[in-house]
């Protein structure tokens, strides 16, 4: 197996975990299977950089010399952070020139903005931190921004969402380069899941939806979250809010940004997902507890949301679990 060179780009204002999270994954893979990866870090001029948290990183080399006398890196990884908001034009120019030459191009969090600024995401699917997806779509209309997945693969380019999702993407790449057993070993060592599916939502229902302004509607939101297995029809929820079904549906959508039905669907899916990850309960029991009623109904919901059945989803998190 040929050794793959990984080049991590660093700059002032970089998010430290965007760098160190994936780096620890690849370094762990190299320790597990020596000769797999050659990992390098580089800043524009080779000088130390100060991260957004104040930590100083000392790179191995300068970007201008990183490729001198050597083959292009197999994987070029671009992290995010405050330094992506007004990037050094020289960094964008370097990425524009060298990004297309890497066999695999990866961004973490707002590193997608640097790739987009260099024109490397035009016509491609991509994601970034949920708080910046709308801005990326606005600033770079040629990019097909997907706000929900924790990472997106589009050919040779992979983009991940906020911060820790870079670890998920790195584990997926290690699994691709080596095998699942190595990636699982690394995930256990780092005490993280192997592995969240790339199309898993970036954030919980309660973070994704706005909190209603009026107390009766906020009470309904809490009731839905705490009782996913009850009758959550518009009529039943409207009765709890002491509103007519029509008025309730309109007010709920206006104040939360989603319809009651969509909110209920997301809560039930998240509840079922967490039970699969965190408990030994069987699929049939979880389907009832989450309000689906039958395993088949829950299976359809998981296939639509994650592209995988509940039993397979669980195996990715709890390899020893048996349904």
| Subunit organisation of the chains | single chain
Instruction: Look at the structure and give the mean pLDDT.
Output: 87
* CATH topology label of the largest domain: Rossmann fold
N-end to C-end Cα span: 37 Å
Our count of helices gives 15
Instruction: Give the helix level as a range of percent.
Output: 40-55%
What is the architecture of the largest domain at the second tier of CATH? Answer: 3-Layer(aba) Sandwich
Radius of gyration: 22 Å
Number of self-contained structural domains: 2
- How many β-strand stretches? 11
Q: How does the overall form come out from the CA principal axes?
A: globular
Global structural class: alpha/beta
> Superfamily at the CATH H level of the largest domain?
Class I glutamine amidotransferase (GATase) domain
Outline the structure in words.
This protein has 323 residues and is of the alpha/beta class. It has 2 domains: 4-190, Rossmann fold; 204-323, Orthogonal Bundle (Arc Repressor Mutant, subunit A), CATH 1.10.10. It is 47% helix and 12% strand. The protein is built from 15 helices and 11 strands. The strands form 3 sheets. Strands 5-2-1-6-7-11-10 form a 7-stranded mixed β-sheet, sandwiched between helices. Helix 1 packs parallel to helix 6, helix 1 (16-32) packs across helix 7 (180-190) and helix 6 (165-177) packs antiparallel against helix 7. The two termini are 37 Å apart.
Question: What labels would you give this structure?
Answer:
Rossmann fold; sequence-specific DNA binding; Arc Repressor Mutant, subunit A; seven-stranded mixed β-sheet; Transcriptional regulator GlxA family with amidase domain; 15 helices; 323 residues; alpha/beta; disordered C terminus; INH-QAR; two-stranded antiparallel sheet; globular
């Amino acid at each position: 197996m040929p050794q793959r060179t990984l080049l991590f780009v660093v700059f002032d204002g970089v998010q430290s975990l965007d760098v160190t999270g994936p780096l620890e994954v690849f370094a762990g893979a190299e320790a597990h299977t020596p000769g797999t990866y050659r990992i390098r870090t580089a800043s524009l001029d080779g000088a130390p950089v100060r991260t957004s948290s104040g930590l100083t990183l000392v790179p191995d080399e300068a970007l201008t010399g990183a490729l001198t006398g050597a083959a292009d890196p197999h994987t070029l990884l671009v992290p995010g952070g405050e330094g992506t908001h007004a990037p050094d034009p020289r960094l964008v120019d370097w990425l524009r020139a060298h990004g297309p030459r890497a066999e695999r191009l990866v961004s973490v969090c707002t590193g997608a903005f640097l790739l987009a600024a260099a024109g490397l995401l035009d016509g491609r699917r991509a994601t970034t931190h949920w708080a910046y997806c709308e801005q990326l779509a606005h600033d770079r209309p040629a990019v097909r921004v997907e706000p929900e997945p924790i990472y997106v693969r589009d050919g040779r380019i992979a983009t991940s969402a906020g911060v820790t999702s870079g670890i998920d993407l790195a584990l997926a790449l290690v699994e691709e380069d080596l095998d699942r057993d190595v990636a699982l070993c690394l995930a256990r060592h780092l005490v993280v899941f192997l592995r969240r599916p790339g199309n898993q939502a970036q954030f919980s229902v309660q973070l994704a939806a706005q909190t209603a302004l009026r107390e009766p509607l906020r009470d309904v939101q809490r009731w839905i979250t705490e009782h996913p297995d009850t009758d959550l029809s518009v009529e039943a929820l409207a009765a709890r809010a002491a509103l007519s079904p029509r008025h309730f549906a309109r007010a709920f959508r206006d104040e939360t940004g989603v319809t009651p039905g969509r909110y209920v669907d997301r809560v039930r899916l998240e509840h079922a997902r967490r039970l699969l990850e965190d408990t030994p309960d069987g699929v049939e029991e979880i389907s009832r507890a989450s309000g689906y009623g039958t395993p088949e109904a829950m299976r359809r919901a998981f296939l639509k949301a994650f592209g995988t059945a509940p039993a397979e989803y669980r195996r990715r998190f709890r390899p020893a679990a048996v349904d």
